[in-house]
Design a protein that fits this description.
The protein has helices at about 5-15, 35-50, 60-65, 70-85, 105-115, 120, 125-130, 140-155, 165-185, 230-235, 255-265, 265-280, 285-310, 310-340, and strands spanning about 20-25, 55-60, 95-100, 160, 195-200. By secondary structure, the protein is mainly α. Bound molecules: tryptophan.
Length: about 350
């Protein structure tokens, strides 16, 4: 639904006191999307996107903390958009765009840098974990949560669907909103609403083929649109124990079953669990079952995905339109931020 600029203005005027929900979330274009991404976040994004005013953006500025190769960054960015559209994201019902098409977020981030101590950022769980994993502790990585706060607040976001690992970033966002409001706004006219996280932790950890959490950094992923031999090879290589075929097995200790649970109906899940416990049902059977489930679940979206991949101009058009709408909103907000801060603006 294209934005009428007048409506945007009216909405932002009372954004701080409004009880209207604005959903905001960013998706990293930092690698091939996999089942862990899907069940951890994407599925909920798709479910939410047409329920409220919402902004979903591909965080390519954030990705620079890990992807420093222009061809790859471009490819990953387009891939996220193509994936969302293939999965049924309706660009008429929401805004889907590229973070850097709204460069105003970096301006807001700059303003926020002045409201948060470096020591607080150095204590960031996600920051520390990334550094432990060997990433360079550069200023981008350290300030990552500040840019994220700008992402959320520049659209007046009130609800942020994210994985449990992002909880602290949303806390920092709230603190920055609070700090900005108390520093620059009259008590009765705060500029930023307090966003709430919507923590998507109803899904247990999605295991990768080696049994660790599925993650690009562990190289153990099953791609969302993997198909044919590639998919089969990955599913067949999921690590299981060596319980003999005839012996009863514990479904809850099995990586294959953990994945089956994500796809199966309750009834089917119970049947398969019973098969495990009865014995005579091998991990090979379970893997075949899982393979069929993945094909059924993603088959249609996969076709749309490969079709859209051949029409990058169409995908770009959608992103451009989403970016235009988002940018209008962001600019309206920034005009008020600049005024609140005292940044003299002499252009129209
Ligand atoms: N940090 C988020 C992640 O890694 C991505 C992100 C960037 C984001 N900006 C955001 C999420 C704004 C929600 C809102 O998943």
């Amino acid at each position: 639904m294209p934005h009428d600029p007048v409506t945007v203005q009216a909405e932002t005027d009372d954004a701080a006191s409004s009880t209207e929900t604005t959903v905001v979330s960013g998706i990293q274009p930092s690698g091939q999307l996999h089942l862990g991404n899907y069940f951890g976040a994407i599925r909920q994004h798709i479910a939410l996107h047409d329920q409220h005013e919402s902004y979903f953006f591909i965080v390519n500025y954030h990705a620079l903390t890990s992807v420093q190769d222009n061809a790859l960054l471009e490819a990953y960015t387009m891939d996220v958009a193509t994936t969302y559209l293939a999965l049924g994201f309706d660009p008429e019902a929401s805004h889907l765009f590229i973070q850097s098409d709204v460069p105003e977020v970096t301006e807001l981030a700059w303003i926020f840098y002045n409201l948060i101590p470096v020591s607080r950022l150095e204590l960031g769980v996600s920051y520390k974990e990334k550094v432990e994993r060997g990433m360079t502790p550069n200023a981008g990585l350290l300030n990552y949560p500040v840019l994220q706060a700008a992402d959320i607040l520049i659209y007046g976001g009130t609800l942020v669907p994210v994985g449990a690992d992002q909880k602290q970033h949303i806390e920092m966002t709230r603190d920055l909103a609070q700090k900005f409001n108390s520093t620059f706004c009259p008590d009765d006219a705060p500029l930023f609403p307090m966003p709430e996280p919507l923590i998507l932790d109803d899904v247990a950890v999605v295991p990768g083929i080696d049994g660790q959490k599925m993650s690009k950094s562990y190289g153990n992923t099953i791609g969302l649109f993997d198909e044919g031999k590639t998919l089969k090879k990955k599913v067949m290589s999921i690590v299981t124990d060596s319980t003999p075929l005839d012996a009863p097995k514990d479904p809850d200790a099995c990586n294959v079953f953990a994945l089956i649970k994500l796809f199966a109906s309750d009834a089917r899940r119970a049947e398969i669990a019973a098969n495990y416990r009865a014995g005579g049902y091998g991990y090979g059977h379970a893997k075949k079952e899982l393979l069929g489930m993945i094909d059924d679940y993603f088959g249609e979206a996969r076709e749309r995905y490969y079709d859209l991949k051949d029409r990058p101009d169409y995908v770009r058009d959608i992103l451009r339109e989403g970016g235009k709408q988002a940018r209008a909103q962001a600019r309206a907000y920034m005009a008020r931020v600049r005024e609140a801060v005292g940044l003299v603006t002499t252009y129209e």
